């Protein structure tokens, strides 16, 4: 049986994609076969599809670091035919065919059963971005930041991680400050729960090693000078969760926020997080994420639309989450 897939190929240094018909014999090794219903487009997907960052390690390959669908066949204990499952990261879109196809075969170790009340579409409206946002919230909680401690800053606020982070934090009672380069998205961010919206330019340029203490904690998906400035303006015994690198991989900071203000910098890894952490994150998402707010963040495209979405991601014009209906 054949099925539709978006496949990335490489010629020289150039990466290109096309939607083709694949055969089940082209699927990779695994003990679970999934009829994929939805995937999504994250920043890492944009890097993979465009050939930037060396995300894809072998060609040809089906990109897509996320997928959600229904189990068609399984020899993995605890996962049965008919189960609704989600996969985030692991080797998808790097060394293993990912979610931009109507079928996937992969290890049951990579799968989480989708918790009630989420549908497969909801699971991809969350995707790696939303799952990363939840991991970041857990890191703030682990650091002892209750809502009474003060404001929580979210950088890259109108992106996928930022949008879900704002919805989660506001629902948990935190006062959220949203940093964005698109102030015209202020109404959108406030609808998600942001109490205040600030211009990202106030954080994105080089500055001093310490500034006025402004927020109790932060979720940063930007890195570079932005993260350095976030740390410099975090309150005593604050916590900052670092989960992205949109501005850059460098961190032009000093040790002063750490040794003078006892700041904690918590790194967030969504790719190889152990299954116990994934299960906790998805359980908390099911409990704490407002589905109405999630719907406000979400748009839906087909496989053929992915390259255009990637271009808009790099142009900084994508808001929230983009779900891919692989059957459209």
How is this structure best described in words?
The chain has 328 residues and is α/β, with parallel strands linked by helices. It has 2 domains: 2-114 and 297-325, Quinone Oxidoreductase, Chain A, domain 1, CATH 3.90.180; 128-267, NAD(P)-binding Rossmann-like Domain (Rossmann fold), CATH 3.40.50.720. It is built from 9 helices and 15 strands. The strands form 3 sheets. Strands 3, 4, 5, 6, 7, 14 and 15 form a 7-stranded mixed β-sheet that branches.
State the main characteristics.
9 helices, alpha/beta, Quinone Oxidoreductase, Chain A, domain 1, Rossmann fold, single chain
Describe the structure concisely.
This protein has nine helices and 15 strands. With 328 residues, the protein is α/β, with parallel strands linked by helices.
